Amino acid sequence: MAVGSVDVTYRGIFQKSLASVITKALVKAARHEHKIGGTVQRYSDSPERNGIPAKQFAVIADEETSLRVEMAKYEPDTVVATCVLDDTLVKGLESWAWYGVQAVNASLSPGGVLLVVSERPIEELADWMPRADFDWRLAVLSRKTSFAGLWVYNDDGTDMEVLGALSRVTGGLVALESLVATAAAGSDAARRAELLESGFSSVQVAPISAGVGREWPYETPALPAWDEMGEGVAIRGVPKGERNMLFQKFTTRTARPVVDFDRCVRCQICYTVCPDEAFDPTPSGHYAVDYGHCCGCGICANACPVEGCIEMVDELAFSDNSDLHRIYEADPEGYGNLRQAALATAGGPVRHYGIF
Amino acid sequence: MATVAEALADLSVGRRLKVLPLEELYTSGHRTCQGCESALVMRYMAKVAGPRTVVTGTTGCMYVANTSYNSTPWVVPWAHTQLGAAGSSALGTAAGLEALMRKGKIPREKINVIAFCSDGGGGDMGLSGISAAMQDTRYNLLILLYDNESYANTDIQASGMTPWGAVTSFTPSGTKKKISQHRWKKNVPALLMAGHPQGRYFASASSGFGMDLMEKVRIALDVGGPTFVQTHDPCPKGWDFDPRRSHELAILAVECGITVLWDFLEGELRYQGVTRQLVEGALKRRPVAEYLQIQGRFAHFGDEEIDYFQSQIDEMWEQWLLPGVLPATAIPQELELGTAAGRGRSEDV
Amino acid sequence: MTTIEKPVSTPGPAGGGPGYQEEILTGCDAVAQSLRLLDVDVLAGYPIRPYDAVMATVAKMIANGEMDAEFIIADSEHSQFEIGKHASLVGARSFIGSSGVGWMYGMEALVVTSSLRLPVVALVGNRALDDPGAFGVEHNDALMVRDTGWLLYWVETAQEALDMTLMAYRVAEDHRVMLPCALSMDGAFLTHSQHVVQVPGKAAVERFVPQYDLGDRRLHPDNPISVAPQFNEDWVMEARRQSDAAMRRVPGVIEEAAAEFKEVFGRGPEDPFVEAYMMQDAEYALVGMGTVGMVGKVAVDQMRAQGKKVGFLRVKWFRPFPASRLRSLLGGLKGIGVIDRDYSFGSNAWGGVLYTEVAAALYASGSRPVVVPFIAGLGGREVSVQNMVEIQGVVEQHIASQPAEVDCHWIGVREHVGKGGER
Description:
The complex is a heterotrimer.
Chain A: E1 3-11, H1 16-32, E2 36-41, E3 53-61, H2 64-71, E4 79-84, E5 108-117, H3 122-128, E6 136-141, H4 158-169, H5 176-184, H6 189-202, E7 204-208, E8 234-236, E9 255-259, H7 269-273, E10 279-281, E11 287-289, H8 299-303, E12 310-314, H9 324-330, H10 332-345
Parallel strand pairs in A: 1-4, 4-5, 5-6
Antiparallel strand pairs in A: 1-3, 2-3, 6-7, 9-12, 10-11
Helix pairs in contact in A: 1-4, 1-5, 4-6, 5-6, 9-10
Chain B: H1 3-10, H2 13-17, H3 37-49, E1 53-58, H4 61-64, E2 78-81, H5 86-102, E3 112-118, H6 119-125, H7 127-135, E4 141-147, H8 188-195, E5 201-206, H9 210-223, E6 226-232, H10 236-240, H11 246-255, E7 262-265, E8 268-271, H12 273-280, H13 288-292, H14 303-318, H15 340-348
Parallel strand pairs in B: 1-2, 1-3, 3-4, 4-6, 5-6
Antiparallel strand pairs in B: 5-7, 7-8
Chain C: E1 21-26, H1 27-37, E2 42-45, H2 53-63, E3 70-73, H3 77-89, E4 94-98, H4 100-105, H5 107-115, E5 121-126, H6 140-143, E6 151-154, H7 158-172, E7 181-186, E8 194-199, H8 202-208, E9 225-227, H9 236-265, E10 274-277, E11 284-288, H10 292-305, E12 310-315, E13 317-319, H11 323-330, E14 335-340, H12 353-363, E15 370-376, H13 385-401, E16 409-411
Helix pairs in contact in C: 1-2, 1-7, 3-5, 8-9, 10-13, 11-12
């Protein structure tokens, strides 16, 4: 290896510090092995927005020249491992400043490994995986998703376990011993060493062959040439009654509001308090959620005055963004069953960390 | 927390919403954070203003996070303006439209001119420009300041409107200095009101009270002349709390007496909703600790800091002649302010 | 200082054409007359010497009902330029201006005006930059926007100021251009000196400058657009390339407009880009911008009388820079002295901005003449005919001595004179 990068894909702000600790620790450990490295925070993710997918990279190289080439990029090319810190990101990611929904394994090099932090079985996660035209591996570190805030770091051990797992699944991009040695320099060394080893030993890996997986449904829009753009940087506004279809916010979601329309009292509060204008009035007086544009903030569920009417349901309980109210209208009983099943299988929203 | 529903019910959401159009003039597909209350303010503002509106917006989250080339969430015409240019962009827009209408170059009609700005853009850099706009009574324009209490778009630096003690990128809490944000929050609507007697309308609103906010925007646009509305909007990223509690937090700020809902129209100062109940004594203020302790930016607060914060809020409510507006605690008795005799005497001089 | 002359009812002298009135006007007043004739919709003013005389004149014309426009007293230059920009964005013809550090104060608003491709016209009454405060002319203020998509022009007389205000709107508002234009006028020598000026009639001006039409970029409820959504690296180069393309179209538009100017007003310069005085058979040229041309031409007359084949070349449009005109006029010469009324500390040969541009333009010429940089007239110091002769002498000396390095000469600066009389 002349150069290898680790792509850390995460939820903006909530996992920013976590991603930063991981990438920095990788480089520090590499220094312990007399390699060199650096970290790259994808610039267009910055300033990060709560929940919106973002990336940081650790670039590790044997010598300076290879490193230089990779460090002058927004996204380093030779990604040997992508580490996904929240499993709902497997549905795709749209950075706030860029276009098109990216597949979670899009940056991976042939033979690379995608490590997901998730409590789900590896088979279930494998089902979500987009197809690649090369052989690669899926790895799972079984752990609850770790979220924190901008100012308060959640020192729950996820960082060390992920690092241990990365050492294992990359075949020693950095050795476990180097990570342990690096951690030894800081506080709480024994606990950290234990976590590193636990991550190293507990990570599961499954090979995935070329051509196996979901067909990616999203196209990246082609950008116009300079003389095709409107002059004076003006663009047309959104036509009345429509939404901005060039950016939908659904990849921000870890959980979605699911409405029990039978309990709904048509009070309009969900519609009123939604900062993303995601509720559509319907002739029946219910409000249907546009799951393309809902970002799963949970304000509606919090504000709903009827107990149990709006529940935040884990995003992976749903395969697409289709209109649930339409399903309810067509078959209220069937919708009820669907809703119950989703509530039963899912873990609910990811809670914000800390004192809150 | 039941108060969310209570507060909304208090403002008769269902009944009064029916007069507002359901369609959105600022719509989905903006790149704001989960639980961004400032985005909600944009939505309310556009909805109540209606389609015959021109909006300019200064740099900040409501620019950068909302509009990424080549897409936009705006249905009504919108243009970016520079950070300190809320007042001047409103003046330029209003003056341009007025000149064209007067000269018959475009049809005469009422077009709402709204310039929005953030606490940084409006309360710091753009204050002088907003002041100039408030003086220019020839034009109908509204400056809407969405106050999320930091330079949020640049990753949360303290503005003149960041609350005392809050952690921001520029006011961290460290081992030697626990509190770096030593400035008490600037009261922009009150200073604009006091200094611009010719301005037609000044209001302080909250994203947590949508009906009240929309009513204030409506009055501002209807009354004509230069008007100013400020909204207090929780920022889940910068204040560091669970986004689902955004709306609740806005309401809590009012219930604790930190945010004060008031407006000033034709010489009359009025308090609204929960604030009014607090003023009248019908409701008791909640302790500020309830508000502070669910935000990561105050996570370093101990009892001492919470007590200090509470004491400042208490002083505002118990000592100020007009809570949230006028910090004077007493007026000289011999002036007999507000009485005919008092006025007569000053005229004699 | 600024007085509004009552319109003189006697028709102007021959050459003025029908409908002309002759008046005695300062440069600022001449611009104000054009603004009235152009029916400018919105003007934003903020006081700073010496440009502000134009705003005072306009304010008086509005107060007297001679002009119908919104005049806004801004709280700063930044607000002033933003007001102009936003008025322009709703389709109103707008005018701004400033001097010295005032122009700097509003710099942010200036750069976005050009990137939004809004044809705002500005008057820069050139003034030295602080500190300390100084009122006299230096060109550094206006030159600060030279890289940002503003069209830049330096006028020499009040008549030219009037004419070029009309041209500025005509060119800036052309749909192929849509870039802002700043007219530079030397502080004191032009802003505060009165000249005889032919003021044309309104009908002719309306014929020459059609109504401002921003088309589908006009911000109005009937045209719901979003202007300037934020860019990331996927877009910036494309937008810059658009502005570049617009700037490249300007020379053609200027030529077209200059030809029509002659047709409408019955007069106009031979060359819209530069003024070439006695250049036909010249072996040497002095090059400058603004009022330095007045003395430059007199000096040329004197030196010609002594048999020296010297010409004066006044650069009028600085952006776009008329490089090909300069190559064809200066390419084969023996020597050139470039007089900068500005500084660019640390730049090539320690010279000024104009020198750097002229030298760069001539680098591509077949026979590269010797180009010697001079700095003169800073902060409003007078530049005399004698200074010009001195400059020509240095150029000749330079050619004779062939020094290894080109070095800039400061003209008219007090030098310490040592005991032995050496400098």
